[in-house]
Structures are given as C-alpha cells and as structure tokens.
Amino acid sequence: MKIIFDWRLSRVxxxxxxIVDEIFWDGQKSxxxxxxxxLKIQQGRLIPExxxxxxxxxxxxxxxxxxxxxxxxxxxxxxxxxFQRATLLLARMGVADSSRDMxxxxxxxxxxxxxxxxxxxxxxxxxIEWAGLFITEADLDSQRHEIPQSIASSGTIAEASEKLGxxxxxxxxxxxxxxxxxxxxxxxxxxxxxxxxxxxxIREIAxxxxxxxxxxxxxxxxxxxxSLAGGxxxxxxxxxxxxxxLGAHAAMSAHRRGAPPPKHGSILFSMPQxxxxxxxxxxxxxRYLAGKASIxxxxxxxxxxxxxxxxxxEINSEIExxxxxxxxxxxxx
Amino acid sequence: MANxxxxxxxxVRREGRTLWTRNAVKGVSVRxxxxxxxxxxxxxxxxxTRSKVAAAILRTRDDxxxxxxxxxxxxxxxxxxxxxxxxxxxxxxxxxxxxxxxQLVAVEISPRMVRDLVKLSDRRPGLVPVLGDARKPEQVxxxxxxxxxxxxxxxxxxxxxETFVKMATSFLAPGGIGILSLKAASERxxxxxxxSRFQKAERILMESxxxxxxxxxxxxxxxxxxVFTCSSSTGN
Lengths: 333, 236
Description:
The complex is a heterodimer.
Chain A: E1 2-5, E2 9-13, E3 19-24, H1 31-42, H2 48-56, E4 61-62, H3 80-97, H4 102-134, H5 147-152, H6 157-163, H7 175-209, H8 211-217, H9 219-229, H10 232-237, H11 240-244, H12 249-256, H13 266-269, H14 272-275, H15 279-301, H16 309-325
Parallel strand pairs in A: 1-4
Antiparallel strand pairs in A: 1-2, 2-3
Helix pairs in contact in A: 1-3, 4-7, 4-9, 7-8, 7-9, 8-9, 8-15, 15-16
Chain B: E1 6-9, E2 12-15, E3 18-22, E4 35-38, E5 41-46, H1 52-59, E6 74-78, H2 84-93, E7 103-108, H3 111-122, E8 127-131, H4 137-141, E9 148-153, H5 160-171, E10 172-183, H6 194-207, E11 211-217, E12 225-231
Parallel strand pairs in B: 6-7, 6-9, 7-8, 9-10
Antiparallel strand pairs in B: 1-2, 2-3, 3-5, 4-5, 10-12, 11-12
C-alpha cells in the first residue's frame, strides 16, 4: 500500500491499484496558498492530508513521485491558471530569498573589491606619472600617497606643487588639460574611499560568517577563500589539499600535465607566515595552515566552538617550530 | 515563408541551415534573435550555435521530427538556464496563450537564471519555472502534471549520464524522447580525454533501461559537446 499525492489530492492505493482512501484539499485556491503547498512538497515536508492518511494507514509507504505513474489520476484543467500563477510566485519568492544567502553577498563584495582594486591600481599609477611629468621635483616614492589628494584639491598646478612642498613646474598644463588632471585625480581618491568601504564591509560580514577562519587568515583572505571555493559549505567540505592550492588554478592544471605540484595557492601565499618564510619551508607551512584553515571553516560552518586568540597563538608557535626545524635549505642531490 | 522551407513539426521550420520557430509572443525576441513575418505569423530564428537542441536537429541523421516534442505534450527541461532554448520549445509545444494545452517545466538551480526565466514565463502560459535541483526527482515532481513526453537535460555537473538515467526513469513516459546534452568539460577531469568521457556516458546509457537512438557530435556548432537521443523502452 502506498500514499501518492499532488497539491490537490492525496490518495492511498493498494497493490492492485484500488483506491483505499483519499482526501481532497479544500483550502482556498489562491496563488499564494497553492505556492505554499508546492513549496512544502518540494522541500519534502508533508502536506496535512498526507499526514492524516499516514496516520490512518501507518503501513502505507509515502511515495513522492508515485503520482506520475498513476494512470487514473484526475486531470485538473480548471485549476491550471492558479497553478501557473503559483509557480511564478514560488519562483519569485525563491529568487528573492537568494539575498539571504551570506555566501552570495560575500561573493558580490569580494568580486567588487577585486575589480575596484585592479582599476584603482591602473588609475593611481597613471595619476602619479601624470603629476610627475609636470611636478618634477616631487618624490614619487615617499610622497606617492599625497599626490592624488594634492592634485584633486588644488585650483592650479602651482598650488598643488606648493602642497607637496616643491617649486612649481617649468611648463604649465593648459586649462582643459589641468581640469582633466583634477577630475582624474579625484576619481583616484574617491576610488580609494570606495575600496576602504568595501573592505570594511567584507571584514564585518566575514568575521560574522566565518569567525574562526577570519581569526586565522584575516577576514579579507577568509572571504576570498570562501568566494573562490564557491561558498562556505563547499569550502568546509573540501579536503585540505584542495584548500592549500585554492587560487593556483593554472599551476594545478599544469600539474595534471606533469609539472611539479604548486606549494600553495594565492591566498595562502598572501599570508606572511608563508610568503615571509624561507622558500624551502613554504610548502610545509602552507600544508599546515591549509589543514588548520580547513578545520576552522568546518568549525564555522557546522556550528563548532569559535576559535579565539589562544588557538591562533598555538598555531603560530607551531609554524615557528616548523621554521626552526628546517633552518637551512635542503641539499641538492 | 518561402517554398524552400520545410516543416519539421508544427511551429518549427527549417530553411537551409537555419531553424525558425513560430513566435508565441509576437514582436518580442528573447535574446536578440532575428524575427521575420510571414503573413499573420511571426517566426523567430533558432540559433544552433546557442542552442544544443537546435544544433542536434541540424546534425541528426534520423528524422529530425523524432527529436522534438509534439504540440500539446508534457515536457521537462532540466538546466533551463535563462530560457533561450526553453522559449523556442515553448513556441511550438504551447503556442500563443498555450492554445495547444502543453506544459513545459523548466528546472534551474541558479536564482539569477530563474529571475530571467520568471520574466519569460510571465508572458508564456504553460511554461512553469522551477527553482530547484534538477538532480532530485522529489524537487520536480510537484510541478509536472504527469510523465513527460520529452525530456532534455543540459546540466554542468559531473555524472551527467547517471543523473539523466535517474531522471528519465522517474519522469519519461512510455514512448517518450529523452535528450541528453553532454558537456565534456563538466565530467571529472581525471578520467581521460573528451572522447573517453563521451564513451563512458554512452556506456552508462546503453546499460540503462533507456534505448539509445543516436549520438550526435556538435563539433562546429558547440565545442566539446555531444547530444545523446534516447527513447524510453516500450511498455513501462
């Protein structure tokens, strides 16, 4: 005996296909109530009629797709329109719900930051070169950070030179040239601000969404890692070896064709524990850190006890121990 | 339409190397495709480089009409994406305001794509957008009115063939057609080259209860893709 159902009718049928019992849904057939029932069925929860039938016939098996093979299931032409509207409503609700997903929100922030940073780098270096062409006495290294701001906030290039504490240029830009320079420089300063804002919100979300991983790698790297993996859950389910090479996609595919394996991906390499260590221990440290990071993200995802400073200190001292163990490069054979 | 065009099924015409479907929403292109009028009928160009089903129709050695559902049938489309191909299928399975009484259930897991699909379904009665996992029969069963006469699976996941066999076993009606678009790049990277992946999928289909009809290589229209056409074994 089995229980088969759709959103309108639930039915108990025996092995011979005879109808033993059935309940019609007598609720109001509005798109939203139908959408709710469809959602319940889709999520594998029981609709009330199935529950009732299951209590009446405890031995009957509930078959969620059995209705499809039922030859004498009634057709529902009259409720086609309300069904159609319900499915549209349900799909819309699902789309609206996707903004609840912190992974997606983090992904937007991480990608926006990445793009903003790459355009900022190009614009900033152009701004410096441009200013340097005219203001020849300014030090482009030590005064680098002041230059965009000085240009953007000045009325003339002489004023900008004054702000930078150097003598005015020998040749002046034309009026329209100078005004372009100012707009360009102010776009650089405003994109620095945008970048800061973006990173602030990543920090805020990452420390909430994956506190342990953020404690271990820093919130920005933690967020990048989650976004590379395609979500916190996927990162949590990854073996630590995959985590170790996240961001080393090209090196990994070269490895599949026979090249030596990458020691670490871009995110682990950005950790000072890895990049500031001697070359011959980087792989060891990256492997160790990846292992710890994979534990950290599992702690975060599966509601474990969040790591605090003491755990991180322990990890860092272990890293120091690894470094101390291998003070010299291995001998080449 | 000119005399040289040939009808494949109702609402689908072939003209040389191009395909056209009878537009169910007059005056609207779904993704910028060409439209042309023929009296009171408007036709929409079905681009074989953007639709694997269209490519398969052009490439098949069988009668192309055996690959397509008939007007008024029940269809299941797994991995609908933003609904490009779906819209063409809808054109002839449902028609204007679904006067054929067809049903086309389009399943897609990405909310971003379902957003576009909803917009499409708004003007196309009979098209049912479902936000859900196309690998899970329980997530789809509530939306389809019965077993499907036509199933197309186009998913970028590993184990596409296994999934297809599972879904077709649950949903394909006796005498129905199942079409699997297999993307080599989505299968597990450790298992040999593209061709061996296609062969593995072919083996899985042959060992299943489905009857494999044809393997269609889409080279030139869609790289690294083959389409398998199957029919459900007769009876049940």
